[in-house]
Amino acid sequence: MLASEAGTGSAVDISAMDIVLWGVLPYVMVVVLVGGLLWRYRYDQFGWTTRSSQLYESRLLRIASPLFHFGLLAVIAGHFFGLVIPMAWTQAAGMSQEFYHFNALLVGGIAGVGTLGGILLLIYRRRTTGPVFMATTKNDKTMYVVLTAAIVFGLWTTLASVFEGEHGHNYRETVAPWFRSLFIFQPDIAAMAAAPFSFHLHTLVGMALFVIWPFTRLVHAFTAPFHYLFRPYIVYRSRDRDTGGAGAKGTAGAVGARSSTVAARRGWSAVGTRDRDTKNR
Amino acid sequence: MRVMAQMGMVMNLDKCIGCHTCSVTCKQAWTNRAGTEYVWFNNVETRPGQGYPRRYEDQEKWHGGWVLNKRGKLVLKAGGRVKKLLGIFASPVQPELKDYYEPWTYDYKTLVDAPLGDDFPVARPKSLITGEDTKITWSANWDDDLGGSAEHGHLDPIVEKVRRESEDKIKFAYEQTFMFYLPRICEHCLNPSCMASCPSGAIYKRVEDGIVLVDQDKCRGWRQCVTGCPYKKIYFNHKTGKAEKCTFCYPRVEVGLPTVCSETCVGRLRYLGLFLYDADAVTAAAAVTDPQELYDAQMDVLLDPNDPAVQTDARAQGIPEDWIDAARRSPVYALAKVYKVALPLHPEYRTMPMVWYVPPLSPVVDLLRDQGHDGEDAGNLFGAIDALRIPVEYLAELFTAGDADRVAAVLRKLAAMRSYMRGISMGNDPDDSIPEAVGMDGQSMYEMYRLMAIAKYEERYVIPKAHVEQAHDLEEMGCSLDFEGGPGMQDSSPFGEASGRPVPVAVETFNALRDRQTSGSAPGEATLRGRVNLLNWDGTGAPPGLFPERAQSPEKAQSPETALPGAPTDPTPAPGSRPGDQP
């Protein structure tokens, strides 16, 4: 299941580190991501939310949030084209390498800069708007660091290839085959090992992002409400058919704490700002 | 036809004294939590006034409710499904905290802790959002009793509209002012636009009683409902990131108790009861072209519970017999459709609201009295209602989409009732020309008076209990191992103390019962984690933890507190002793 000999034929030596990073880590990441998401979906529906801060501030958010999110959607689409669609296919479709590269840089660059600008503006807003900063948890801060790092390093790989021009690294011969080989459980470690450091760094930070994903507010992305396009406007639900605990609690938080030894349920903590003091950050 | 039951409320605005008891008790019951400091599921507004949040009725700004598109189809004013999803990353017209108000508390501790000095210590206002010193500039009822209306009165969207149409006739000069209170809760609409706006489908209407609730587990915090609700009665809990709203106190209503706001209402102005309505007719009724006909359309959706055909259909839909009976005795149905004195709030939003209002006659009566006229004479009252166009037009903008004649008709009924009953209580012969002038007879007028003025508790609140024959199904649904502390669950998780679910009672009881059967002693602390389970207690002995530990030392045992006559001094009670034996 490790390095397939029928890789790209690259003459790079595969070290033990390469095997761990490009042969083992991706699968660990997937296990944590999928397992974490399932676990959280099962046990933390109440915590599964965008935790929007628009109530506190919306002037900056109105610009920054769509800029970041739409930019990110374009970036994800770009990753799909770059990683999933083999070079042979685009060439068979008559798309020259130069044309592909130019487009990837142009569209990817714009999307990346938009995403980065968006998140920088969002971080600026989060830091400078008092209530928003107070509502920021340690968890959020960690997530922002990893997310921003992933974007910055990703943009670096793109911009680097702009300056390198013709001689730039073609990730469609290294990273992309490795990415696809992961799905057939024959990781092409040699191909990935041949990629430059910037790609290694971006990939590692990206994997770190996916590892922490289920445990941060980013989970809201996995419940993107596409079903809104298809569901009826008016929703009837029987009291008797409510699912599980919802039958008893239904709305506005949940049933109260069952005894004083159990801490108050989320959403039912006392009014005040004690829970927002510095030790919580 | 699909007959459904709907819990509804009617508020008789003539009786509201603006004491805010409903708001306060509601807040104590539901929103005294972190994240909902600024939230008032029930609020009382002084009208004319801006309301809470400020100018919420200005739908050109807030885009709440439904509108008809060019093809006459009902669409959300804030946009269709695709537009909503595209605007999800930053809700385009969501009110900010400053549109409600910044909640605050006071630094009371300083009053106690301040060192001795020449000056009195002051409890400074502190923001409940930032914890910093704050300046109080607005609240949920800042313009109470027309406070500041000379400055802010023109900001009331209804005043703006009436002024536009009547060339600046509403003056805020004190002597010319009229005023009334408008308590507001969620309307529990038949055609709720908040529900239609929710991308997650987390907001739902209960089939049994029509109460609109937010499923806190399904809500993902997309915030579109806040925009969607034209009454701005969906609030964003900034701590949990979930939408919350008035629950119609469903845990109370389910057991036949009135809502907290109704129960504690000093003026006894709230009525609770059932409507039967045709759910299949709602969308068509909400799509009537002329906004002023929406009231009639809404009336047509409400079904007559005394009609045998309706009753048959209701039974076929599984509505229990006692609910049909409650619908027949429903005070809200009587006020809305039989006497036609209760009107929906802003029918032009096309949401088919189910909290109704009896418009206040008091501005008219007050004015007559202030001018030295007999405020209870039918002729005077009828004349004044026709002459006082401004209050009537204002009320019409609130309750009938601007149809002043309809409001005037309701006010005339109230005036007739006042005048007719005054005659009777003065010992005169009933003047049946008065009820006839408003299309009623003496008998129905007296019954209306009984319901509105005497307003007995049992007549104001006709609340059928929820049918909990299937209660055991409700109690312990799902896998019995999926509880906090069960397999796969940690006592505290990285997401906070509320992750997971509470221990189902049946599991706890099962464990306690098994312990008892196998160990020979009463269930102990180990299985109950500090709690006491009395479900298995047969009266023999006392389970540990039922009473506080008593001191073991002889001096303590002799002390006056514990050495009560007849009380056993031994800390372990004798077998057979009852809890009442303990001091």
TrEMBL record, chain A:
Gene3D superfamilies: Transmembrane di-heme cytochromes, Chain C
Keyword Ribonucleoprotein: no
Membrane disposition: Multi-pass membrane protein
Keyword match Signal: no
This protein's name: Nitrate reductase-like protein NarX
Species per Swiss-Prot/TrEMBL record: Arthrobacter oryzae
Keywords: Cell membrane, Electron transport, Heme, Iron, Membrane, Metal-binding, Nitrate assimilation, Oxidoreductase, Transmembrane, Transmembrane helix, Transport
Cofactor: heme b; Mo-bis(molybdopterin guanine dinucleotide)
Job description of the protein: Does not seem to have nitrate reductase activity.
UniProt region (Disordered), positions on chain: 244-281
Record-stated family: In the central section; belongs to the NarJ/NarW family.
Compartments where located: Cell membrane
GO MF assignments: electron transfer activity; heme binding; metal ion binding; nitrate reductase activity
Transmembrane segments: 19-39, 60-89, 101-124, 144-163, 189-213
One GO term of the biological process aspect: anaerobic electron transport chain
SUPFAM superfamilies registered for this protein in UniProt: Respiratory nitrate reductase 1 gamma chain
InterPro entries found in the cross-reference section: Heme-iron_electron_transfer, NarG-like_domain, NarG-like_sf, Nitrate_red_gam
Automatic annotation (TrEMBL), chain B:
Domain 4Fe-4S ferredoxin-type: 7-36, 177-209, 210-239
GO cellular component: cell envelope; membrane; nitrate reductase complex
Keywords, in A-Z order: 4Fe-4S, Electron transport, Iron, Iron-sulfur, Metal-binding, Repeat, Transport
Protein's UniProt keywords contain rRNA processing: no
Stretches for region Disordered: 533-583
InterPro entries according to UniProt: 4Fe4S_Fe-S-bd, Nitr_red_bet_C, Nitr_red_bet_C_sf, NO3_Rdtase_bsu
PROSITE patterns (alphabetical): 4FE4S_FER_2
GO MF: 4 iron, 4 sulfur cluster binding; electron transfer activity; metal ion binding; nitrate reductase activity
Ranges of biased composition (kind: Pro residues): 568-583
Biological processes annotated in GO: anaerobic respiration; nitrate metabolic process
Main localization of the protein described in the UniProt heading: other
SUPFAM superfamilies per UniProt: 4Fe-4S ferredoxins (SSF54862)
Key word Membrane present: no
Domain of life: Bacteria
Localization, UniProt: Cell envelope
Essential cofactor(s): [4Fe-4S] cluster; [3Fe-4S] cluster
Protein name: Respiratory nitrate reductase beta subunit
Organism this protein belongs to: Arthrobacter oryzae
